[in-house]
Amino acid sequence: MGKENDGDSASPAFKLVGFRNFVRHNPKSDRFRVKKFHHVEFWCMDATNVARRFSWGLGMPIFAKSDLSTGNIVHASYAIRSGDLTFLFTAPYSPSISGDSAAPKASASIPTFDLAACRAFSASHGLAVRSIAVEVEDAEVAFHTSVAHGAKPSASPVILKGRAVISEVKLYGDVVLRYVSYKDDVESLEFLPGFESTTDEISSFPLDYGIRRLDHAVGNVPELGLAVSYVKAFTGFHEFAEFTSEDIGTSESGLNSVVLGNNDEMVLLPINEPVHGTKRKSQIQTYLEHNEGAGVQHLALMSEDIFNTLREMRKRSGIGGFEFMPSPPPTYYDNLKKRAADVLTDDQIKQCQELGILVDRDDQGTLLQIFTKPLGDRPTIFIEIIQRVGCMLKDEEGKTYQKGGCGGFGKGNFSELFKSIEEYEKTLESKRISETTAA
Ligand SMILES: [Fe+2]
Hints:
28% helix, eight-stranded mixed β-sheet
């Protein structure tokens, strides 16, 4: 692709080439070893309530805590999990309890937590993601390597009870990329040192709707070129995919997007920017206004059985869970039969229609996807539930695994939805005309 990154934000060498011209190539250029997504942390003002809402809505039991009951007088943190996906919710306690001196601060299980920053963050962004955490081989090396290649530091490496290390660099807006690494013998560790297991408390009420891991975490930024150049420069991540407003076939989408991936393409970080001058305001611009700047737009959660996950989640939409965006018109599913009959059975297409699931394909596989409505008060962060079909490979030990990003990210659905809505509106029009004529 001939795109170089010198980390110079004043003259980014990054340039969009568009979906058609984009040549997928994995240079395996990571600057340090990134193993996988570790967790996603939300900052909020009351972690108990937010954690329980997400737990119920997504079928992810609370499995670890660090709060007053465990001796933490700085912040309340609750971790929920389903398969390899972990969300962490953190809220501050009163400074009159935690104070500013070093001694009480020592009780914080996340020592990078900053009370004033958390309060300012919540006031500015509402409910939002503070950190995307990746497990790396060595969080100290990752931090110093990143900073040496232009990353803005957020928190220097801290060793947690001699068993794990965390460090943070700025990603975009007020979001940080958190590095987590473990020392040896962590078999007994549920999450991070300082957290206590709550599994006994929840064993009587197991929750599991089939969500298994984080597939991708998407950010919205005002300027894509600057953000992509910055992140590429310090992580060494490569461009896994990109698309522009023109590629999508409808200017209504109002966005340009680049997906960055690590060496094994299991840590995928798409970044969007708004495109201006379209009939409707770009949804990315709306996000940036409501979020007061850049931030995490959506988290794509991979399900092992999207039909089951959707049935469970939809049951709870009206009783404390998450609601979904309106389903596409029937014309979308008429067209889907032509587009995906070789991959999905008639029954599966019927279930997609019943549950409002969208389907897209790329040159390698098929993507089933659906989006929730915004998770909180503001039209900002939402969740995508996905299942990928195809691209099964074997590793060196002969174990089968699915290639990251198989089936793409739903680019084709922009134009498919647009087309099916147009077709559907035409059917309504002709119905109206025939009714008028009949009258
Ligand atoms: Fe997505």
